[in-house]
Structures are given as C-alpha cells and as structure tokens.
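[agent] plan:
  1. take the single chain provided in the ticket
  2. run structure prediction with default settings
  3. attach structure tokens to the ticket
  4. add a short note for the reviewer (M.T.)
[agent] executing step 1
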Amino acid sequence: MIVKNQTISARPLKNNDSFKVFFRIIKMSLKYKWRLIFGIVAIFISSGFSLYIPLLLGDAVDAANNLLGDNSEISSINDSRNHLYFICILLLIASIGRGTSAMLHVYLGESIGQHIGYELRMLYYEKLQRLSFSYHAGVHTGDLITRGILDVEGIRMFVQTAILRLIFLTTLIGTGTFLMLKTNPTLGLLSLSFVPFVAWKATSARLKLRSNWYALQDKLSTLTKTMDENLGGIRVVRAFSAEEFEMEKYKKVSDEALDLSNEQVSIRSSSISLISTSFFISMGIVLLVGGQQVINGSITPGELTQFLAFMSILLDPVRQIGLMINGFARGSASGGRLFAILDLEPNIHDEVDSQDIVVKKGKLEFRNVSFTYEGDNHETIHNISFTIDQGETLGIVGPPGSGKSTIAHLIPRFYDPTEGSILIDNLDIRNFTLESLRHAVCVVEQDTFMFTASIEHNIAYGNPWAPDDRVEKSTHHAQLAEYIERLPEKYKTLVGERGVSLSGGQRQRLSIARSVMLDPNIIIFDDSTAAIDAGTERKIREELKNLTSKTTTIIISHRLSSLMHANKILFLEKGRIVESGSHDELLELNGHYKDLYDLQNKARGKM
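[agent] step 2 finished; step 3 output follows
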C-alpha cells in the first residue's frame, strides 16, 4: 500500500470563522476567570493612573507659572511651592501605581496564556493519539509538529497581545478621548482627527497579516517536514552524497519563508509608521491651535500641557494598535489551523455499547470482508472469508499489493472493513473497546519502531510494570537474549533514535519480544522475520511453538519457509483468495503457490 502524504488544508478563514476562533479562545480564557478579572481590574487601575498623570502635569505647570509670576506675600509663595511639592508626590505615587498595576496585568495575561498553551498542547497530543491510521497515513508529521508548537504559541500569545491589549487600549484611549473632549471640545476633535485613518489602516493591515500568517505557517510546516525527512533518512543522504541537494531544497523553502516574514514585517512597520505619523500630525495641529488659545487667554499653559500630555500618554497605545492587529491576525490563523485538528473525530472509535473483550475460544473469522482505502479507486481486498480456531496457525502469502498487510490491520481495527464483518468468538470486533481489542490482538510489523529508551523499556512498552523475568523470558523466545547479555549495560542499554543502533534483524526480534511479552490471544506476524536469517527464524518458530499453543496465529510472509508449517495457507492475488489449503495441498494444485515454491527452492539451490 502506498499512501501519499498530504499537507493539511490551511486556507484563510472567513471573517465569521475568525470570530468563532476568537470566541473559542476567549471561552478558554474564562476558565481562569479570577486571573482574568484581576488582570482587567489591573488594566483599569493602570489606565486610571496613566490618565491621572497628565492632569497632575497640567496642575504642576500652572502652579510653577503662578510661583514664577507671584509677587505677593511670602505665605502665598509658600502655598504655591507646597502645592507644587504635593503634586510631585502625587506624580511619584501615580507612576509607581501605574508601573505596579501594568506589571500585574501583564503577568496575569501571560499566566492565562501559558495555562491555555498547556491545555491546548495536551488536547492536541491526546487527539493525535486517537486519530485513525487513515488520517496519519495521509498527513506529514512535519505539519503536525508545526501545529503543535507554532500554532499553540500563536494562540497562547493571543490572550496578552490581543484580548487584554484590546481592553487596555479601549479603556485608555476611550477615557482619554472623553477627558480631552470634556476639557476642550475643539482641541479634542483635532486630536482625534487621526482616528479614521488609523481605523482604515488597522483594518487593511489585519486582513493582509491574517493571510500572510497562513502562508508563513504553511512554509514553516514545510521546513519542519523537510528537516524531519532529512534527519530520518540521514544515512541515505550521506550514502548518496546528496547533502548539496538537501541544502538547496531546504534553502529554497527557507527563502520563501524569509520573504513572507519580510513582507509581514513590512506590513507591520509601515502600518505602525503611518499611524504614528498621523498621530504626530494631529499633535502638531493641537499644539498650533492650542498655543494660539494660550496667547488669546482662552486656556492656561497648564491646560495645554494637559492636552499634550494626554496625547503623549496615548502615543504608545496608538503604536500598540499595530501589535494588537498582528496578535489578532496570528491568533486567527493559528487558532483556525489548530482547532481544525482538535475538531476532527477519529474514523475508528469505540461504539456506544462496546465492552471489553473476553476471549474464550480464540476463534477468528473473516466473513465476506472487503476494504478500500480512502482516496483509492479500487478495492484492496474483496470478499475475503476464512476461519481460524484457537491454537491454529494461518499463513498468508501473495505478491506485493495483494492485501496481506491490510488483513493484518483490519483485525485490531486499525481500519474498519468497507463490507463484511470480522468476528472473534462469533462476536463482531466492533462490539469491543479498542483498548481491550488491541491488547488481545497483537501485530508484529516488518518495519518496527524503537523508542529512544533502554532495551528493557522498549520490550516492556505494552506493559511498563512487567517484572524483569518476564521481559527476559520474551527475549529468549525471540532469540535476542544472547545478544543483550553481551552488551555492556545489558537490558539497560540505550537504544538510539528509531533503533538506529540495532540491525534490522535485531529490531525485528526486539519487536517480536515486545509482542510475545503481552501474551496476546491473537498474534499476527506481518513479514516480521524478513530481516532475520533462516536459522534464527527456525529457532524463533520452535520457541514460539509451545508458547502459542493456545494462541491464534497468523503469519504473513514472502518466504514460504516461514509459513509452510501452518494449518492453512491463503494465497492472495489482487485482493482475492485464489488458493487455500495446507502446504501439501497447495503443492498438489500446481498453481501460484507451487510456482512460488519452485522459484524459491531454485534460488536457494543456486545459493
């Protein structure tokens, strides 16, 4: 079976979809309501102190002006001086209060974001564990890794950079605008002349940034995918001296990601720059008109100072509008991509009334089973029927692509049949929970996976609490014990990433030991001895003969010597059973099995 890896769809969200993403993140934030409440209260306090400072500065200017121009009694001068000192103390208190409350709301916002990030990582990882084999067969791990890291980070930052920042800016700018209009309507309107331009620029920048974030996340996924493939196949790369080709491939995607990043920086910087420029133009107009009003005596220098101080206080929040827009854009893109995975439902799942399997007789039956892989136009297997009783062995042989491994994957419900049913003790396997079924049915694959852990932990992966003697006994059955005993740290020896420190045959024997240790009711060897020499395979078979006397066994192999002892052998071709019977019966048919037997004997004779 060949399944093409596909990139997960990451099309830009529509506006209503974006709002759904925002609402979903906000809903997650509400789980930490006290942190959120205290964070918002801290924002109000910080905004209050920020807006109080311009009022104090205006009073200070008027007090200083009175002090400089006051030629009256000494007591009046002392009063003005004391008033100025009092304002200085209030400014110090306001500055400390502003800094403390700002620190508090930033801390609480970051805390909520970190908790949401933790929750999303756990939900995402748990979802990946439950998604069906058909899903994992159609998507590259690089895409999944990127979503689990970069997209989670984008959502995590959304709380602080977008939600709380929006509340902060709305409170500060809104209240500041009200105070400016109340103080002087003419100057207030002039100071707000930049707002329409900011609204237009902010909206257009958000749309561009949102689309850009999607494209950038896709390129980062491709980068992760390229590196993952390269590191996984580093031996092949070195063997074929393909380092230059791999570098060029990685550089091409990196350049595309860099271009998108530069475009994003350009959008953000130009947006912030234009917003700031419009702000300073408004401030210049306010200074010009306000200065004329001071000259005319309409307002005091302190009142003009208050106005300019208000605008100065608002300058940084105005600049943050661009950062907030970027936060919304990234949150929308990251949330849409991540939630698309979290909302998936596994094709294979426990049925409503499923129960744990209790195997009594161990009888396995395929009843008119057909199966087609998703996206394929023809059936992989068609109308397969057979029965195996407890203690019996079934051999399956056939050319590549004939459906042998598909049969193996249907029994533990890695996939469900398109038609027909599979029964254990006359009960449909869909009546059983997946966990109990996969403990009862064990598949030993040809392509074994090893974790970066000790040999002991790799063998005991299915039952980490298994006693040491059971682990050691399983390695004896798999003819691996002698090799392990020669290692410096024996069973504590660390296996390299993906089992790179073991040969193909050693990995397969370790996989056999891992499966045998679980003592399953049904065990399936899917070409799991292909890398093991014939002599060692014969010893393994003899060891397992007594062990599997009460186990239903299926052996899938291209090597007839691995399965000729089976009670019954099926020869598959194009997904159909074309021959069945014992080894001797199939030889007498003089059909496909006999041809393969003669071919392998002839090849063995030449050797």
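[agent] step 4 note for reviewer: The chain has a mean pLDDT of 78.
[agent] ticket updated
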